[in-house]
Amino acid sequence: MREAKGFSTYYVGIKDESGKIIAGSMLSVLPIFMNGTLVQALRGPLLDYKDEEQVTFFHEHLIAFLKKKNCIYLHIDPYVPYVPHDLDGNVVEGDFDNRDVVSLLKKLGYRHEGFTRGIDLSREPR
Question: What predicted TM-score, i.e. pTM, was given to this entire model?
Answer without folding.
Answer: 0.86
